[in-house]
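Annex B.
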Amino acid sequence: MEKKLDHIGIAVRNLEDSIHFYTEVLGGSLIDRYRSEAKGVESEIAIIDIKGERTELLMPTNNTTSPIARFIRQKGKGVHHVAYHVEDLEEALKELESKGIRTLEDTRRVNKHGRRLIYLNPADTEGTIIEYCDYPK
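VOC family protein: predicted structure tokens.
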């Protein structure tokens, strides 16, 4: 199945400073900003577009339970995940299973934009957090 880079997720400590950098220094446009308190998300998210390429800035809203807060504590701020767009998430998951690649089922969800997503198990991806996503109609 064909995959295309969808976005890069960046863990940040200060969303305002990060938005300023991505818009004023890199010339991007803030296209959305929202807060998700869903279990396994617990972040404020800003989506930046730079010439058609997307970056998600992720700031934890709960320093105890947010996976972004845990990531920052363990690895510091910076690239959190790389997301790949697939045509059909269900088919892509079958393909992964046939290759022995596991997913983190508790990360499976639909975001506010209707994007279905799931994270692959970093133990099977050389340690990189990879998201698979699709945009069903």
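The radius of gyration is 15 Å. The chain has a mean pLDDT of 95. Further annotation is deferred to the next reporting cycle.
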